């Protein structure tokens, strides 16, 4: 169509997601999104929606992208829950070590920003954060932990996972992050299973 600018939606959403990930929701302006995506403000509004709508799409993209990796890592939980949780943390540690991704975690950042998010964005951030706990709980239950132990370790491992993102953003070394993971994995290995 003449006069209508064409763009690849996946590329644009990825660029917007990276912008939100680097700067956070509150510190990302429409001008920042325009620079990141290469779209002008009116194209952003007409193609992607307002800032909240675009943020929700980016949070979903992030949660899906890394959620699939976490699911794959936890796939062996029924036979070896300790190895599965270690693989779960490996997904996070690889993301943190990847020079092509921003430091931290978009979900953790969003959860910390809940007081300044719109109600729908805050609910979305809480849902994304809760999905980690549910994913871990299901895996640990499949690994024959009692319901109580599966819930306790799921809450703990999800909290550790988010703290890894925060610690990496604050400059913790890979060795320090690996040591944190080691404590959790060692504790899990001590839990008796029927």
From TrEMBL:
<dbReference type="InterPro" id="IPR001647">
    <property type="entry name" value="HTH_TetR"/>
</dbReference>
<feature type="DNA-binding region" description="H-T-H motif">
    <location>
        <begin position="29"/>
        <end position="48"/>
    </location>
</feature>
<keyword id="KW-0238">DNA-binding</keyword>
<keyword id="KW-0805">Transcription regulation</keyword>
<feature type="domain" description="HTH tetR-type">
    <location>
        <begin position="6"/>
        <end position="66"/>
    </location>
</feature>
<dbReference type="Pfam" id="PF00440">
    <property type="entry name" value="TetR_N"/>
</dbReference>
<protein>
    <submittedName>
        <fullName>TetR/AcrR family transcriptional regulator</fullName>
    </submittedName>
</protein>
<dbReference type="InterPro" id="IPR009057">
    <property type="entry name" value="Homeodomain-like_sf"/>
</dbReference>
<keyword id="KW-0804">Transcription</keyword>
<dbReference type="InterPro" id="IPR036271">
    <property type="entry name" value="Tet_transcr_reg_TetR-rel_C_sf"/>
</dbReference>
């Amino acid at each position: 169509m003449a006069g209508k600018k064409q763009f690849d939606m996946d590329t644009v959403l990825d660029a917007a997601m990276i912008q939100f990930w680097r700067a956070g929701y509150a510190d990302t302006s429409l001008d920042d999104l325009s620079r990141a995506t290469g779209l002008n403000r009116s194209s952003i509004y007409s193609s992607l929606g307002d800032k909240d709508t675009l943020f929700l799409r980016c949070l979903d993209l992030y949660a899906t992208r890394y959620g699939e990796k976490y699911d794959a890592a936890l796939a062996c939980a029924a036979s070896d829950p300790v190895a599965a949780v270690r693989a779960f943390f490996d997904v996070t540690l690889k993301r943190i070590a990847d020079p092509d991704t921003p430091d931290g975690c978009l979900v953790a950042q969003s959860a910390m920003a809940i007081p300044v998010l719109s109600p729908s964005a805050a609910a979305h951030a809480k849902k994304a954060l809760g999905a980690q706990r549910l994913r871990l709980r299901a895996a640990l239950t499949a690994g024959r932990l009692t319901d109580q132990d599966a819930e306790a370790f799921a809450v703990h491992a999800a909290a550790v996972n988010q703290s890894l993102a925060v610690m990496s953003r604050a400059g913790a070394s890979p060795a320090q992050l690996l040591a944190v993971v080691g404590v959790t994995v060692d504790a899990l290995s001590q839990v008796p299973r029927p």
